[in-house]
Design goal:
269 residues; alpha+beta; 9 strands
Length: 269
């Protein structure tokens, strides 16, 4: 009995020490499981998230107009292939319908290609244009996309061509360059007719003259072509609507381009 008492205390002490050594990590693991073994959620405030607005139509128009400007270098890439959901036929015919519906270009212009059928797409060439702005926001990796639809005919009894630059995001034509030696058949050479064309174009784009577009009074160009100018408020963009004996241009430019007399000296102030 005395021997048992002699060894009992040391043995219990060893057991307590060993138990503490083994049990402490186990208890710690149990505590951790209770604390971290469940999903902790907190309400997310959407208003606190950073928001970056995507490029607007005016942003893409501005980049397009600046692609030849030395003051704002723009990186560009052009290719004859495209990968949108619409086929070449659907894209071309949709653009033709848009231009004829709003009285920008008449059916007569396209019908001469095809004998009054809707197959004008067979005579149309489509180029895809990609533009990047090196000075733009760094997180914007995707280029701005545009399409150029071109009809050219030098085989008939008269010559004509049509080039339409289209914003790929909206499908809206942002620039139109037309040449037709028989343009007098469908477009009178007078200021009233030209102003009507300008208003038709802006209405097609969903713009109101006086609000979205401001009329500027340009000086008469040296070549005596009929011409109107409209400025886009809060931007450097200008639309020059020009009618010559064989031409009709709806040109998108920026202040200082100067190729068509559209620099600041071209306005009668």
């Amino acid at each position: 009995m005395k021997l048992m008492k002699k060894w009992l205390f040391p043995v219990l002490t060893c057991l307590i020490v060993a138990g503490a050594a083994v049990l402490s990590p186990y208890l710690s693991q149990m505590r951790d499981m209770g604390q971290f073994g469940q999903v902790h959620t907190e309400p997310l405030d959407a208003a606190a998230l950073p928001v970056r607005e995507g490029p607007t139509l005016l942003d893409r128009m501005e980049l397009f107009a600046n692609q030849y400007s030395s003051a704002r270098p723009v990186l560009s890439s052009s290719t004859g292939t495209y990968a949108d959901s619409f086929t070449k036929r659907e894209q071309t015919l949709a653009l033709r319908e848009q231009l004829t519906k709003w009285n920008i270009v008449p059916d007569l212009f396209f019908d001469e290609y095809t004998g009054a059928t809707d197959e004008a797409y067979e005579f149309c060439d489509i180029q895809r244009l990609l533009l990047w702005d090196p000075a733009g926001e760094q997180e914007v990796r995707e280029p701005f996309r545009y399409y150029q639809f071109s009809w050219t005919d030098y085989e008939t009894y008269h010559n004509k061509s049509l080039s339409v630059d289209v914003d790929a995001e909206t499908g809206l034509p942002i620039q139109i360059i037309l040449w037709d030696t028989n343009i007098a058949q469908w477009f009178p050479y007078d200021r009233e007719a030209l102003l009507d064309k300008a208003f038709c174009f802006f209405e097609m784009m969903g713009w109101t003259v006086g609000t979205d577009m401001v009329y500027m009074n340009p000086l008469e160009p040296e070549n005596k072509f009929l011409q109107y100018c409209f400025a886009v408020p809060d931007t450097d963009l200008y639309y020059w609507i020009t009618h010559g004996p064989t031409t009709f241009h709806i040109s998108l430019e920026t202040m200082g381009d100067g190729e068509t007399g559209s620099d600041s000296s071209g306005f009668d102030r």
